[in-house]
Structure formats: C-alpha cells, structure tokens
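Subject: mismatched residue count in predicted assembly?

I count 513 residues in my input, but I want to confirm that the predicted structure covers every chain. Input:
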Amino acid sequence: MTEVVLHAEDVHKSFGKLEVLKGVSLEVTKGETVCIIGPSGSGKTTFIRCINHLEKIDSGRIEVNGHLIGYRQKGDKLVEDSERNIARQRTEIGMVFQRFNLFPHKTALENVIEAPVHVLGTKKAQAVGLGTALLGRVGLSDKVDVYPGKLSGGQQQRVAIARALAMGPALMLFDEPTSALDPEVTGEVLEVMEELAAAGTTMIVVTHEMGFARKAANRVVMMDEGLIIEEGTPEHFFEAPRQARTRQFLSKIL
Amino acid sequence: MHGLVAVDLHVIWQQVFHPHAILWHVLWATVYISVAAQTLGVLLGLLAALARMSRFAPLRWASGIYVWIFRGTPLLVQIFYVYYTFGWPNVTLGGWAISDAAIAGIVALSINEGAYMREIIRAGIDSIDRGQMEAAKSVGMTYGKAMRRIILPQAARVIVPPLGNEFNNMMKNTSLLFTIGVFELFAYSDQNYSQFFISDYFLAIAIWYLFLTTIWTFIQAWIERRLAVSDRGEQLSVRERLESSWNPMSAWGRGAPHR
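Triage response: the counts match. Full output below for your records.
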C-alpha cells in the first residue's frame, strides 16, 4: 500500500504573458526521493514553489497528504484559501532555499526552534531538545549558539535543513540547495540530504547535482519548457534516456 | 543691549544651575510631549507603511494621500488647525494635569511625524531580503507573525538611526506648541523674556535643549549598539557609534543621509 504524499495535477502557472508551467502532473509517495532536473527556465523551481503556495497556481490542483494546497473547493470552483489555512498547510511542508534564507538575527538553534515554538506552540525546553538533536543530525552540534553570519555557506544550508525538519514535515522541498555553495562545501550538504533520503524522508529535490540524483533518488523527473518530458529511475535516466532533449541536456551537464 | 552682544552670565548661570522649580515642570513637559508624539508617530508610520504595502489599493492610496498632505504643509499650520478645529479635553492622570493644548499638540506632532516615519519604516522593511518573508512563510508563519518576529526586528537596525534623528527634531519641534499655549521650555523662556527683556533667557533655554538632545545622542548610540550586537557578530563601542553619528549634517539635519 503506497501512501501518496504529493499529488499534482495539470498545474499551470504564468508570469504575465510567460507561461512557465504548462500542465505539470506529478505524484510522490511516502519515503520517496524525487529529483527534478532540467535546464534553467524549465519551470522546476516555480513548480516546487507552487507546492507550498509561495507561487499561486493559475489552474490545476496540488494536494499534500490529501489536503488541497492554497485553495479550497467552492462548488466546482477553487478559491484561494485563508492566510491562516495556507500557513497551517505549510507547516507540513519543509522548504530549503537556494540562498538558505536563515534568520540573521537569530542563532542556529533559535533559527531551528523559532517555528516549533511560535507556530506550533511547542514548549521552549522541548523545542530546544529537538533543535539540539537536529543540529547534531546535520553535524553542527558545535555551532548551536552561532549566528548565521559566522557560518560558512555549507553550514548555513545545514542549519536551514534542520530548521525545515524541526516542523516534522510530511514532505521536504529542496530548491537547488547547493547552487549557491562553493564546490568544496556542496559535499557536506549532499551528505546530509543522502542521509535523509536513506532514512525514508519524502523529498523533492530540484538539483543540478547528477551524482546526488544517481545515488539518492528513487525517481528522476526531467522538465523542459514547463512540462515534464521524461521520468524514470536513475538507472534509466543515466543509461538510456528516451528523449533526445534529455540526452542533449545530460550530455551538457555530465 | 543694542548693537552689542553681551551675555548676561548671571541669567545663564541661574537658569542652568539654579533653576526655579518651574523649569523642571517645563522640561518634563517637553520630554513627555516629545516621547508621546514620537511613539504615536512611529505607530502611525508603521500602520501607514503596512498600508502602503497592502494588496488592497484604497489602503495604498490613503497612505499616499496622508504622506502627501502632512509632508507638504507646514507643521505650524497643522498644529493650529488641529488645536482650533477640534474640542480637546483637559486630562488628569493621577495628579498630573495635561492641558487640552498639550493633547492637541501631541496629536498634531504625531500625525505629522507619522508621515515622515512611514518612509523610514518602509525603507527599513524594503531593505530586508525577500527570502526572509518566504522562509518565514515556509515554516508556517502568517504575514503578521513573520513581520513581527522576522522582518521588523531586522528592519529595526535600519530604522533606528533615522528614527533617532527624528526624535531629535521632535524635541526641538515641541517648541512650536508654545504658539497654542502649551507651557513648555520655550514658553517659559519667552515668559521670562517678556518680563525682563533679557534675551539671554533664550540662550539659557537653548542650553537646556542642547542638554536634552545630547542625552538622547548617547541613548541612541547605546540602542544602536545593542541592535548591532547579534546580527553581524561584531560590536561597535558607544564611542565609535557616537563618532560615526556626531556629524552636524547627519545628527541634526532632517533628511540628511546618515553616515
């Protein structure tokens, strides 16, 4: 019995006249790691930003754990949901950004416990225990009281992963988590992500790191010009991609 | 006295070092009016800044009209209009009486100040990376909570230096309230002058204003230092902060660039 965590159906999104998503459908089941690859401008970042409603979709539907995201059904129409409901839905979805977006006025630990305490209402002492454990899990036990400004990019991104995990999300989204990092520190972030994938975290990762996709992904999805043009196992992708466009993209990036 | 500038040291000495008990009364009036008007001005400025960023167009327009009117007309005109148009009550809090003119003055000064604070607060909020709001939302915060807990605390570092300059101006602008009969520092010096025709009473009161603004400079430096501590992990001493702001253009001039 597979449990569907993400169900996206015919998602359309335009910025002005530019149609960025032209009908994207994707299903992700519990424990799966899905990597989304594709050239820049293919809509992959926009797509995962739609999953937690940081971008509003124009049509189609996205459900996480069976809950419609960002909208509620009104007759046969979808209307945008209240801010409070959208915020509540986002607590189930962790997001890791390309540029970390840590809160610079808070220490590593404060970054991690901020939302558990002030959104979920977890007791401070309990949140500190959880936060300390999560920072340990990403290998930053010695940086608990350090401000982001004093951390390297790789360390900041690991704090950001811990911050997202602290909410106990059903789904983790990674938006090119290593693109803003120096090459020598991407490894430490990818290692943490591989560990998460191996531990059965449900994750969707937009990435250019083909090594990670090959190693950690259960499924790879290729997007091009606002559509998913091919999906399959990493073996399929890296050994015998069907689409000429995929072959062309992979030959450039590998 | 004519044609010759002579300072009556006795008046200065007496007014500064052995002031009549009334001086404490008028000094306090200047302080509480400034603090009250600035506090309300900051709140109004914050509301206007949030309205300016609203998705609801009429709120944005209202905010724009507010700033347009109150920055585009003289403060003194606003004070007179507010005082003479509305009926203001005399308020007594405990044993402390606040005249109707002082109430009207606080209202007029704060509305005027709000128009200036809106721009300062908006610039502060704008200076925060958009990713901060997205990150706050991604962990389940509503817009309001993200503003309160994530955006505004960071924007405060940008807002406080010009806010300090605004407060400095505010303490001096309270002297305008003498024109509607508020008994504050300047009114007191004018009363003395009218009685003795010695202009040194004005000089003495200038020293008292200077005393207030100087104390404020130290308080401001201390606040800025506190705010700078966490973020960059570096600390500037109060002295370094003072040196960076102790510049006639930035410390005393409205609208002059800070640093």
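The interface with chain B takes residues 52, 54, 83-84, 87-88, 90-91, 93-95, 97, 99, 101-106, 114-115, 118-120, 147, 149-150, 160, 163-164, 167 of chain A (CB under 8 Å). Marking this ticket as 'not a bug'.
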